[in-house]
Amino acid sequence: RCASWTSEAPVAVGDADQIQFLKHSTRTRATINCNFSEHAPCPMEPHHPRRAPTAAMDPPSPAGARPAMSHSSAFLLPSSATPAASADAYAVVVLNQRLPRFAPLLWDRAQVRVCADGGANRVFDGMPELLPGHARDDVRSRYKPDVIKGDMDSVRPEVKEYYSNLGTKIADQSHDQDTTDLHKCVAFITDNSPGSDKSNLCILVLGALGGRFDHEMGNINVLHLFPNIKIVLLSDDCLIFLLPRTHTHSIHIERSVEGPHCGLIPVGTPSTSTTTTGLRWNLDNTHMSFGGLISTSNIVDEDQVMVTSDSDLIWTISLRH
Ligand SMILES: Nc1ncnc2c1ncn2[C@@H]1O[C@H](COP(=O)(O)OP(=O)(O)OP(=O)(O)O)[C@@H](O)[C@H]1O
Ligand SMILES: Cc1ncc(C[n+]2csc(CCO)c2C)c(N)n1
């Protein structure tokens, strides 16, 4: 499945909390992949084709059976390794942690770029550092967020002003001290994405893992708060996403960028039955819970990992350097 973002530059209309940010795409989409015209080429790098979908809904399954959902990390592949035919779209959210090394790549290919509060500082400071061969000011103006959203206690005033002058929408939600800035960003993206079927949405979150443990858990909680939205949390070292119990899961392993270490973790509720194939240590109708068995330091042995469970599980896999 993939997001049906418009290929046009996002247009902000209305007040900050109700921005009609993403216009309806006029394209009709196939079940799995979608193609759309490209953004203007990045002046910093050669033109990138769009990336493969993060996850795809397979055709309807027989009555009674759980539908299948397929997943892929092909969005991390370099341009040269990805067939243009597997084009897809996603939104990027940048959190307030050091930018992962692949941030410019994912940013270039994104349809929508949102910074969570201090995430804007990371883009402002970090993008020029990740692109040392290019003029600092050119990089800054090229890597301009569409929206900065959050309680605004971390974004520096000069960063806010810089991007505001370039047309970035500043969405101040300092009145809300009960939800995290990532929660606010995901809610904003889902509220402003076209159509009612949010299963096509994909959100890549940069800088979500490592760092402060309460923030990490808050970020993982967002996966459970939005189980129907495809959200991938990324750091330089690994990625994680939710496998909702409503589906069977087929995870394609992109061996050039990910693995071999992986884990399956029942964060929200114990599982009385999880079954897998493709792993070194597979589960066969196995019970998993905190205080009992959880699968860590597992190894992907096949190019496709299958997972079925009666509970929502977190899938995690290491990223190659
Ligand atoms: N150390 C960290 N580890 C993981 N995620 C982080 C970390 N720091 C920030 N984040 C993520 O980035 C988002 C924005 O963080 P930021 O520091 O700008 O604001 P905040 O949520 O008000 O944090 P704080 O409680 O530190 O003031 C957070 O909501 C969180 O998702
Ligand atoms: C039980 C409980 N614990 C912590 C907070 C504080 N809090 C949670 S999210 C957030 C916003 C951070 O940008 C803040 C301050 C709360 N409200 N309720």
TrEMBL record:
Signal peptide region: none
Main localization, broad class: cytoplasm
One GO term (biological process): amino acid metabolic process
Keyword annotations from UniProtKB, A to Z: ATP-binding, Cytoplasm, Kinase, Nucleotide-binding, Transferase
Enzyme class, UniProt record, top EC level: transferase
Domain of life: Eukaryota
Pfam families the UniProt entry points to: TPK_B1_binding (PF04265), TPK_catalytic (PF04263)
Keyword Cytoplasm found: yes
GO CC aspect terms: cytosol
Protein name: thiamine diphosphokinase
Region annotated Disordered, chain positions: 42-69
PROSITE patterns noted in UniProt: CARBAMOYLTRANSFERASE
Domain (Thiamin pyrophosphokinase thiamin-binding) ranges: 249-313
